[in-house]
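Troubleshooting entry. The earlier prediction with iron/sulfur cluster gave an output that would not parse, so I re-checked the input for stray whitespace and re-submitted. Clean input:
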Amino acid sequence: MRAPKKPVHHRHSASSKASIAEVLLDWYDANRRDLPWRAKPGEAADPYRVWLSEIMLQQTTVAAVAPYYRAFLKRWPNVKALAKASLDDVCGAWAGLGYYSRARNLFRTAQVVATEHGGKFPPTAEALRALPGVGAYTAGAIAAIAFGERVAAMDANAERVVARLFAVDVPLPQARAKLAELGLKLVPEQRAGDFAQALMDFGSGICLPRRPRCGDCPVSKSCTARRLGIAETLPRKAAKRPRPLKRGAAYVALDGRGAVYLERRPEKGLLGGMLQPPLGEWGAVFPARERAVGEAPFTGTWLKKPGFVRHGFTHFELEMEVYVANFSRRPNGEGMWLGSAELTRAALPTVMRKVLEHALDEDVPLFAVR
Ligand code: SF4
């Protein structure tokens, strides 16, 4: 998101003796983004709202998070209300935001705060880090924004700005500790929360990843990377290894009324505790037809849909062929049968919704395999 192009009349500029923090705070006062979770100028920030938005924003964009944030806040307006929800309801409301471990940690943290902290978030970054799913950045952001603690909140924006200001050319992730140390030195005694948000907005509006707008930058005179002409190359990143590809089959069993058979995944591990249609083993190639039918959860007439469903996880890519079978009488299994209304509300991860959409898409014909 680009910051609005308002004219900025700096009380401080980088050519005066003002610190980088003072200049960035001036810039922020004139250009701050109006975000649904952000307190208005002069208003105290609500720790619950800051925490909720920061967990949602992990690996997700502001635009994608906004409707989820509003829906969560309407349904669970405070941490005690969220602690009383069910994990299935929280995961269901989370569906589409990805990385379900975040939803589970959100729920666990709400319970810890409600039961162990009397419904109040602990006020320091160190104590916040003990909460499930709260890492160094998130703890710093909540502590600074909601409690004014003088700590750095080093997200990707802040890391980029600091790497450029000080021309740190060690690649990430090795550079992380150094950037955090330099970032902390920038944080002012007063307005630590505004400064954290200033870095976020400045990084996403001026000091852009690929094309930093150095001509519009109020701290350009203090920026070593600009002086050296290397701003666009920073921060350096260690080369990524390609993600491995896994392939397998998914089985969508339907009863005579269109209900779908689903199982719950184990609590620990990938998509822990979430619902899914039964899946076969994953390997380097799709299973041959005999093996695929042999891995199906019930004996029946399994028909394969053409094509496959693809989904990217953090550490691998997954492709699944989808097999469908209709049963006039429900076969016995340890899972559950859900009708269309229940499916809409169910805690189904995006990848499994893709499988069901593919299975139930009437425009895609079925091929008999047995
Ligand atoms: Fe970023 Fe350019 Fe400003 Fe340096 S001069 S902080 S690279 S926008």
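This one parsed fine. Residues 1-16 have pLDDT under 50 and may be disordered.
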